[in-house]
Amino acid sequence: MANTAQARKRARQAVKQNAHNSSQRSTLRTAIKAVRKAIEAGDKAAASQVFQASVSIIDRIADKKIVHKNKASRHKSRLAAALKALA
């Protein structure tokens, strides 16, 4: 366990930050699933709108460095390819 006041405080901060980052990662996964679900439904117009909203979420989370920018780019690329294949 942490021995100094500074170490105890950092441990408290780490718990709080971990909870926040976990929530953000969950939001990312939910956005990706929403696009996949819209693509499976077959409605390209609706899927396109959901995709645009999800790209915004993905970029925002990558900018905060909760996920690596290359991972975010990979997700966006694969979702865009799936959307394009829907046509």
UniProtKB/TrEMBL annotation:
GO molecular function, one term: small ribosomal subunit rRNA binding
InterPro entries associated with the record: Ribosomal_bS20, Ribosomal_bS20_sf
Record carries keyword Ribonucleoprotein: yes
Pfam family, one: Ribosomal_S20p
UniProt KW Cytoplasm keyword: no
One GO CC term on file: small ribosomal subunit
Superkingdom of the organism of origin: Bacteria
Location of region: Disordered: 1-28
Listed GO biological process terms: translation
UniProt KW keywords: Ribonucleoprotein, Ribosomal protein, RNA-binding, rRNA-binding
Similarity-based family: Belongs to the bacterial ribosomal protein bS20 family.
NCBIfam families: S20
PANTHER family: 30S RIBOSOMAL PROTEIN S20, SMALL RIBOSOMAL SUBUNIT PROTEIN BS20C
Function recorded in the entry: Binds directly to 16S ribosomal RNA.
Name of this chain's protein: Small ribosomal subunit protein bS20
Taxon lineage: Bacteria, Pseudomonadati, Pseudomonadota, Betaproteobacteria, Burkholderiales
